[in-house]
Design goal:
Layout: H1 7-27, H2 37-58, H3 70-90, H4 96-103, H5 106-117, H6 124-141, H7 149-172, H8 174-180, H9 182-204, H10 212-229
Amino acid sequence: MSGKWPWSALFAVTIWGGSFVATKLALGPEEARVFTPFGLVALRFLMGGVVLLGVLVLRGMPLLPEAADRGRVALLGAILGTHIGVQTYGLRFTFATHAAWIVCFQSVTIALAAHFFLGQRLRAVGWLGVALAVAGVFGVTRPGETASAADVGFGDLLQLCGCLTWPAYTLLGARPVKSSGALRVTTWTTLVAGMLMLGLASASGFGARPGASELVALVYLGLLSSAAAF
C-alpha cells in the first residue's frame, strides 16, 4: 500500500464509528425500547451474512471455507457474536460517544497481543502510544456527576470487555483469512454469530414494532456495518 491511501480501511472505520449512533437509535429510548439488544444483533448479522452469501454466489466462488478452517471459523463466529452482543447490551447504559472512544482502545490491545504472543515487537513510540491511549480511556470513563453515573460506568465496563474479544477475533482470524479468503470467512463468521444471537433472542424477544428510523438504523447496521465494513 506504499504511496496509496487505505481507502477501504478508512471506509470501514467510518462506518463502524457511525454504528454506535445507529445502535442507540435502533434500541430506542430507555422508556420505550424498540429492539432488544440480542434481537437487534441477530437481525443485523443475519441480514449481513445473507448479503455476503449472495456476493459469493454472484462471484461464483466456493461457498464454504476450506475444510481445515471450518472449526476456527465457527469459533470466530461465536467470538464475534459475543463481542457485538455485549457491546450492544452495554450501549443501553452508556453514551455512544463513550463507546466509540473506548472501542478505539482495541487497537492497543491488538498491538499488545501481537507483541506478547506473535513476536511483533513494539518500538518506544508504540509504548508511548499505549500510555496515551490508557490515559485517554481513563479520561473518557472517569466517574461523572449525573444520577446515572453508575449505569454509565457499567456500560463503559462492558465496552472495555470488547477490547479483549476483538483482539482474539482479529488474531485468530489471520490463518483462515489467508487460506479461505476474507469474504468466505466473514460470511460464515457473520452467519454463525447471527444464529448464536438468534438463539438468545428467542428467549429475550426481538422487541416492539420498529418505526421508520429504527428500520433505517437496522439496515445501516446490517448492510453497511455487518456486511460491507466487515
